[in-house]
Amino acid sequence: MPAQPHNFTSSTRSAVAGAYAGAAALLADGRRLVASLLPAAEVQGSDAALPRVADSTRDAQLRRAARWLRTVDARADSMPRASLLQLLVPYDLLSRLTTGSASAAQLRRWRDSIFDAYLTGDPTLSATAILTMTTAALAAAPATALSTRQLLWHYSTLDSWRRQLGTLSAFPHLTPAENARRLHLLRLNPA
């Protein structure tokens, strides 16, 4: 039986828009929590000039972070994969801050889901976004972060980009922003 064309109703469009809006709000909250718990000077290694946060304030922030993590856990499976991709970094950081470690199994399951969506043609995911994800995962936990097929894709994509670039200083078919992101990824992943 031939596949029927998908009929997007106004309620379907509304549900999709709501999923993206909900994920965007979660991302903004996650970024605020990370910023409040990890001030920029501390991240850069110089905490001498940081004002000390009262323990009660930090405890309140950690409780908010724990609630945020539970919310992401509850919504992740119904969330657009591009939105989930954006939540991986704050989720990992806030997990480490609240529990002392990230849920490697959960992060890997979500990376698998995002990668599968990319492979099946999700137009909201680009090769650059996926390579950014795989590069970050390998930097955090190289032995267990990615599946074998993701590792193969990661290295074959880097090789392909190097061949495409050849002797040029930029990818001629990409926007300046996308070009900059790819060139940065190639610098992070030397041959």
Kindly report the average pLDDT value. 82
Major beta sheet, specifics? none
Overall radius of gyration? 19 Å
Q: Work out the number of β strands.
A: 0
Please state the overall shape, judged from the principal axes of the Cα atoms: elongated
In the predicted model, the low-confidence regions spanning at least 5 consecutive residues are 1-8, 11-16, 40-52
| Order of H and E elements | HHHHHHHH
Structural class estimated from helices and strands: mainly alpha
Strand residues, percent:
under 5%
The number of helical segments is 8
What is the helix fraction of residues, given as a range?
55-70%
Distance between the first and last residues' Cα:
48 Å
Structure in words:
The chain is mainly α and 191 residues long. 70% of the residues lie in helices and 0% in strands. The protein contains eight helices and no strands. It has helices spanning 10-37, 40-43, 55-75, 81-99, 104-119, 127-140, 148-165, 176-188. α3 (55-75) runs antiparallel to α4. The longest helix is centred in the first third of the chain and has 28 residues, at 10-37. The radius of gyration is 19 Å and the shape is elongated.
